Amino acid sequence: MNMEKIITAAAGREPVDALFINGRVIDVFTGEILEKSVGVKDGYICGFGDYEAVKTIDLEGMYLAPGFMDAHVHIESAMVTPLQFSRGVLPCGTTTVIADPHEIANVMGIAGIEYMISSADKALMNILFALPSCVPATHMETSGATLNAETIAPLLTHERVIALAEMMNYPGVIFTDPDVMAKIKAAHVVRKAVDGHAPGVRGFDFNAYVVAGIASDHECTTAEEAMEKMRLGIHIMVREGTCAKNLEALLPAITDHTWHQMMWCTDDRHPEEILTQGHVDYIIRKAITSGIDPIRAIQMGTINCARYFGIRDAGAIAPGRRADMVAFNDLNYPVIEQVFIKGALVANGGKPVSSNHSTSIPDAPEVMFFDLNAVDFSIPLPLVSKSHVDQPHEIGIRVIEVIPDQVITRERIVTPIVQDGQVVSDPANDIVKMAVIERYTGKTGMFTGLVTGLGLTRGALASSVAHDSHNIIVAGVDDQEMRTAVQAVKTMGGGFAVVRDGEVVASLPLPVAGLMSHEPMDRLDHDMRQVIEAAHDLGSPLADPFMALGFLALPVIPKLKMTDKGLVDVEKFDTVSLFV
Amino acid sequence: MNMEKIITAAAGREPVDALFINGRVIDVFTGEILEKSVGVKDGYICGFGDYEAVKTIDLEGMYLAPGFMDAHVHIESAMVTPLQFSRGVLPCGTTTVIADPHEIANVMGIAGIEYMISSADKALMNILFALPSCVPATHMETSGATLNAETIAPLLTHERVIALAEMMNYPGVIFTDPDVMAKIKAAHVVRKAVDGHAPGVRGFDFNAYVVAGIASDHECTTAEEAMEKMRLGIHIMVREGTCAKNLEALLPAITDHTWHQMMWCTDDRHPEEILTQGHVDYIIRKAITSGIDPIRAIQMGTINCARYFGIRDAGAIAPGRRADMVAFNDLNYPVIEQVFIKGALVANGGKPVSSNHSTSIPDAPEVMFFDLNAVDFSIPLPLVSKSHVDQPHEIGIRVIEVIPDQVITRERIVTPIVQDGQVVSDPANDIVKMAVIERYTGKTGMFTGLVTGLGLTRGALASSVAHDSHNIIVAGVDDQEMRTAVQAVKTMGGGFAVVRDGEVVASLPLPVAGLMSHEPMDRLDHDMRQVIEAAHDLGSPLADPFMALGFLALPVIPKLKMTDKGLVDVEKFDTVSLFV
Questions:
Q1: pTM, whole model, 2 decimals?
Q2: ipTM for the complex?
Q3: Does residue A296 sit in helix, strand or coil?
Q4: Based on C-alpha coordinates, what's the Rg of chain B?
């Protein structure tokens, strides 16, 4: 921002670049709708008034609001780079996001965060960052990096970094883990926000969590929990993502007394929902139709977020702020007609104005360090059991049970089918092999077990998207097909692969850290539908078998999960044996 | 703050130091009144709940609110050191102030600011600082220091410094003065607030002012002006000081939509009003009796201020914040019964609990660098006029006219009384000599002219409190008595002196920079009444002749003022000749 240049225009000593006239300007500070012209110079708002202007933009009576802000989002969940995310989401009117690059950081550490920042630099959207606070998520898995306080501190002063992201390690806070304390203090020193993540944490424990200066939470699932947290000063990010939708439950907590302490976020939102429903605009429309005052719904998607994070140059149509604005016709159901970034039209009628968008693609190094020859999916019976080979019914084996549309699982103990001293898949009973292969150290650490509920009757699925460490996860009926699927993922540098009858029948490359595509979001969505269709063709009844697969390696959500180190009983927060 | 220690107690693993029970706790986040116990450890609030406690404090049903915050105050205006200010104001329930040491900075520069910080370190009150942005106020006077961006930048990172103070030099902003720009940018870099001061500035000029990221204003005198500024995102500090009282005028601007962008401040409040009316508590009571909801009035005096400045550890009764709290019985007219700082009772029934207060006094160097022998109050006629000595009626002289109870003056042109080619006082017509003597360089630069409206019929008054440069100002009938008064001020190292019949009949030492006393506020107030009485005895009908005198050297408020460099016509923003 060339402050001097903008002041000079604001004071009227030079013409503004553009004057937006005939708009009904939503003033998020006073809640008023003002019929005033807005002057823009050098991408920033100079102020209101009848400025002499190089160019005039006639809004013809449309409402003009500040561009929307998403207070907490993992861009990786949209499976495209920040550059393509920007292109895909801008037509929804989201002009600023606070991105937590937690996924890529688990894969690539600081280099991953730097990749996201460099991609953000090329994007039109105002992409700001909250630094991942919990990499790796647990000690029971191998991730691509460990980020401690010393590692992340230098990045905290980066101009795009405005917060320490969701502190998921709430036991670490409550029990004053030194590295957790150091990370939080480092953020405080530079006066940046520390975001929370404390689902269901209450009472004394939550008091302790708040003492650390953690100031937000996006995990509330009931209005009562939100009220309880707001009473301690916590800002509530009301989430409407693909996996978690909390708006309806939190509506009663949005009151005349609390609303200015609340804002919207998407957390994880998949391309399909972004493309069909929308983004923050969707949340705003849903809030309005749920009875929230339209101006307030917009304030929660703009200035409230800006104030919480101390962002001075976004969140309002006011002097000195980025001229990021949205125009729409119906205040009671805002469908975004036009989106302006730094005063320039970047989306019109729901479509990006493509000439404005960068096409240069930042390089991303491949992260696929495992040896396919070392991969072995055999599940030998334990030695003690081999003598009982004639009585396989005496052996029990833990099986992960997928529950449709949920990220929690159950543990089932079954008697495995054994062939030649090896456990094999039992597709007739919807029990197939599943493995997690570590892709970071080159040592090819891996673990193989059984899963039920995926519904696979044949073939194999493999993916490099497996929260939070994003090792290779594969499930299938047959060892060789599993290997073929893993090979396909490796060859692509990451992504999804579906194998049937020994052949790769569908695949989707996610070459950026094995998480994201360089393709546009609509193209990605199209390809995604194809791999899902191919997975359905293997027998899976799940809406999105890859999404289900992606949560089976996440050892922080109950009950039974699998990492490269083994089966994890999340309630015990420890690994457990395969055989019982 | 020992975060780990407080977390440990908050989590219930160790007893808290104190548990405040049976209070009706005002939750400034949700606006609720909660009947919950408050645990305190190591001076900080752990949280709500029935903690095991070393000590229990029974509030017997009283309301418990966070200690009040004054968003903008010049402690120098209370004429006592920060240490004594703390002692005097704490009984009113003000536990945090954002002090702008503008006056002492004009006298002593960075050393003055450092003195205030070191005195604040010894005070019980939470005294935070906004760095003076405009020292000296103008080029038309000699001050004790020049603070440019380079000088103040290192102090911006001090933990007690949370803002750049009132940017009075709005032309410097609007015309992008490089040093003004550099100061503002330096504050932005460290994410600290930049306070405004722009009385009556509107339209394009105010747009330009806001582009610079200036975020508050405490100079609004009408609700319309406040609304206009809030629409641009400016936070309004509603001022009730001794010289300016704006609450009544701004009441219509305090609405359901705007209140969270507003807060209270005193700016300049003299000991008499503090001792008889109160401080922020007085503003809160006045707001409530004017129709503002009591909780809201308290929120404006606590959390709104904390949020604006990004103060994480004050402004609310919530985990991790200082246990600075006030207790009172009547929510509709809160008279502060008990005040707690970091959990300890520091004031009770309007009186300080003295054992808690430090008695060690930080040293302050004397700033009185002028040569009494070089002081000469004669006003010789200009050479061109001396030939007309027989026609003195043909000579005109500019006289500063004091207007009772106002800081503006008028210019009068009169025919002077001349004796031996020198202009002399004309007490019969309420015209006496006035001089400003520069006290910083040792060169004893000075200027002598005439003033009317002080009402002096005999004797002389001298003072070292003369905004903003605080040179020595003196007025009197007789040159010798003026000299005696100046000598008295010099001998005290600063202060007020009244001379009658050649003798010093009353004096008040202000040895700290010539602005502040080490005495307690009530003692200062008592002494102040005596010097004012002595001044009245010289014939002055003004309520406070020293306050009137103190504004006669302020060359930023119209019309005619005097500095050591001469007479200043403020409307022309330049010096003008004495004779016309």
A1: 0.95
A2: 0.94
A3: helix
A4: 25
